[in-house]
Amino acid sequence: MVEHRLCKAGVRGSIPLVSTLVLLLAGCGGPADDTGRGGPTATPPSTVGPSPAPTTTAAPTSAEPVTTEADCPYLDTSFVEDTVGQRTPTVTTTGVPGGPPPTCTFTKPNGEPALVVEISQAADATAAQTAAVERVAPLGGTAVRDVGDGGGIAVGPQTVLAVADGTLVVVVTVNQESSLQAREVAQTVVGAV
Q1: Are the C-beta atoms of residues 123 and 141 closer than 8 Å to each other?
Q2: With left for phi above 0 and alpha for psi between -120 and 50, is residue 73 left, alpha or beta?
Q3: Closest by alpha carbon to 11, among 58, 51, 42?
Q4: What is the reported pLDDT for 62?
Q5: Does residue 153 contact residue 144 with C-beta atoms inside 8 Å?
Q6: Which residues pair with 95 in a beta bridge?
Q7: pLDDT of amino acid 21
Q8: Which domains does the chain carry?
Q9: pLDDT on residue 123
Q10: Tens of pLDDT along the chain (193 residues)?
Q11: What is the phi/psi pair of residue 182, to 5°?
Q12: What is residue 48's predicted lDDT score, i.e. its pLDDT?
């Protein structure tokens, strides 16, 4: 019988898909046992390396986002209230420690968000511009060229403006049908980050 070289050497490194690992290891077994189940036969410990732990085959998990009630690090609450014309007594930030600037949600007294600003990191400036345009395209967005490195805006019951700023993608969602407010907030955020 000829064994696959991965079986003799032991699987080293990380295989991104667990199913691929299962298929590879399935070929490592010996002939079917006498019960007809086709399972591998016992092998002396000196001929087969240890089975990889499941955590070595899965992609590394990133830190989970943390949401806290705190001031937005790049946008002042009084500026938001003046710009959108609504009181926003509760501000929460959601982000991964060490990641891009957090998402800031400015909430009205009734619990509804008045303004949400999301910031994400793209691989490069072109990817950031593409992501910004794609964020508003399904909403019937139009081009924006006067904020950051450009992007798009969709005005409706909620206005969504998404622009690139280098490798960052800044998305502003206002609970009103107003491109002026979204642009003013986006310009302030781009200037701060």
Answers
A1: no
A2: alpha
A3: 51
A4: 64
A5: yes
A6: 66
A7: 27
A8: 1-61 (no CATH), 66-192 (3.40.1000.10)
A9: 97
A10: 443 333 333 333 333 322 322 232 333 344 444 444 444 444 444 444 343 433 333 444 568 999 999 999 999 999 999 999 999 999 999 999 888 899 999 999 999 999 999 999 999 999 999 999 999 999 999 999 999 999 999 999 999 999 999 999 999 999 999 899 999 999 999 999 9
A11: -65, -40
A12: 43
Alpha-carbon span 190 to 62, nearest angstrom: 26
Tokens of 168: 């960052």
Cα gap 129→141, rounded to integer Å = 14
Please list, in sequence order, all residues whose beta carbon lies within 8 angstroms of the beta carbon of residue 75, skipping any fewer than 6 positions away: 104, 117, 185, 188, 189, 192
User: Mind spelling out the 3-state secondary structure of the chain?
Assistant: CCCCHHHHHCCCCCCCCHHHHHHHHHCCCCCCCCCCCCCCCCCCCCCCCCCCCHHHHCCCCCCCCEEEECCCCCCCHHHHHHHHCCCCCEEEEEECCCCCCCEEEEECCCCCEEEEEEEEECCCHHHHHHHHHHHHHHHCCEEECCCCCCEEEECCCCEEEEEEECCEEEEEEECCCCHHHHHHHHHHHHHHC
